[in-house]
Specification:
about 170 residues; 3-stranded parallel β-sheet; alpha/beta; single chain; two-stranded parallel ribbon
Length: about 170
C-alpha cells in the first residue's frame, strides 16, 4: 500500500505510525516495543520513510486528529499531509473522533481492501492496486492456531514473532 501510494500520489516520504492505545477500540495485542521492532524489521527493504513512535507514548491521546495537529505544527502549513487508509478504515472514518477536522488537516487517500467497496467521497484520493487479502487479525489468528504465516509477513517479522512468542494462544 505504501509503495503504491508513494508512486501514484508523488509523495516525498512515508511516515509510519504504530498505533498506541486507542480509546475507540481494544488496545493492540503486542506491547508497543514489539510492534515498533516488527515494523522496523518489515521496513528494512521497503520504500523510503521513517517510523514515528509518537502514538506509542503513554501521553498520546490515541486520536488521529491530535497526531495530525502535532504534525501540522511541526511541518508547517505549506506541507501537504496525506493520510493513507485501507477502504476498511475509510468506511469507519465518519465515526472517528472529529472526522471533519481529520479531513481538513490531511488529504485522505484510500486503498481498496477485499469486501469494502464504499464509494470514495469527492476530494478523497484513490490509490490503485490489487486488494490485499492479508489482515493483521488473520495473521494473529493463524499464529495463535500454530499455522504458518509464510508469505503474509516478511521473514524477519515472522522470525521475531516466533522468537518472542507473540500472538500464541494461552495454554
Amino acid at each position: 500500500m505504501a509503495r503504491a501510494a508513494l508512486e501514484q500520489l508523488d509523495l516525498e516520504r512515508i511516515l509510519w505510525m504504530p498505533t498506541g492505545k486507542p480509546r475507540y477500540r481494544d488496545a493492540p495485542v503486542a506491547p508497543p516495543e514489539h510492534r515498533f521492532a516488527m515494523l522496523r524489521l518489515a521496513l528494512e527493504s521497503e520504500a523510503p520513510g521513517e517510523i514515528d513512535p509518537r502514538e506509542l507514548s503513554p501521553t498520546a491521546s490515541g486520536y488521529t486528529v491530535d497526531t495530525l495537529h502535532e504534525l501540522r505544527l511541526e511541518l508547517g502549513r505549506e506541507t501537504t499531509l496525506v493520510l493513507v487508509l485501507g477502504a476498511d478504515q475509510y468506511e469507519k472514518l465518519g465515526a472517528w473522533h472529529r472526522p471533519d477536522e481529520v479531513k481538513r488537516l490531511a488529504k485522505i487517500a484510500v486503498v481498496r481492501r477485499p469486501g469494502f467497496e464504499k464509494k470514495v467521497d469527492r476530494g478523497a484520493l484513490r490509490v490503485e492496486m490489487e486488494p490485499m487479502a492479508v489482515s493483521g487479525s488473520e495473521i494473529r489468528a493463524r499464529v495463535a492456531r500454530g499455522e504458518s504465516i509464510d508469505g503474509m509477513v516478511p521473514a524477519p517479522v515472522a522470525s521475531y514473532i516466533a522468537e518472542h512468542g507473540l500472538y500464541r494462544a494461552p495454554h
